[in-house]
Amino acid sequence: MTFNAFEQFQIIKLISFSPFGLDLSLTNSSLFLILALLFFYFLYYTNIKNGYITPTRWQSVIEIIYEVMYGVVKENIGAKAGKYFPFIFSLFVFIVILNVFGIVPYTFSPTAHIAVTFGLSLSIFIGVTLLGIVNYGANYFAMFMPAGSPLVLAPFMIVIELVSHMAKAVSLGVRLAANITAGHILFAILSGFVWTMITAGGVLAVASIFPLFIVFFITVIEMAVAFIQAYVFSLLTAIYISESEDLH
Question: What residues have CB less than 8 Å from 235, skipping those under 6 apart?
Fold first, then answer.
């Protein structure tokens, strides 16, 4: 049997369901998206809505995350932070949960698929664009022509700014998917290498202790990456919202 590090990213149909020719089958990806929502619901009702005055350890962790994310939103959006904080906080926790799922053996990380992350980033891009139009009307498109630019350069400046603006929808999702995918592939390759050494027995089994420590170290790094990438995604979302609220 040949080891394939990409098997963990395969979309598998768990329950086939295609009414009127429309494929609405339950896949491993959609299952873990649902599980992430249920887990987030559990976190909210056990640690936020029904929290204790003297917080438990788990509640303390949630409160720290809450404060950090509120600081991010407040710093970038300013006076209107309270308006957008629930969305950005929920986005951060949701992405963290999806990222961490992939570290657990025999699970699946939807954020390793560009279809999922691009769907998130495209939705945010459309949302912030509509927000800018609602706030400023036609004046919103003035951002594509920086003030003070020579009129002769207008066509080039508009194209460059437009491409740069639309790249937000792509870069936001690609960055998340690429980092999660790379980390999971590295983890799978090293884990497979360690398992091969252990099953070989003898000297190789003893020598597997060193790469086993490396796998443990990679696991810690993967946990950090899960939080960092969710933080970066949420931070950039806050920045994009601020640009639509405070047009420069």
Answer: 72, 76
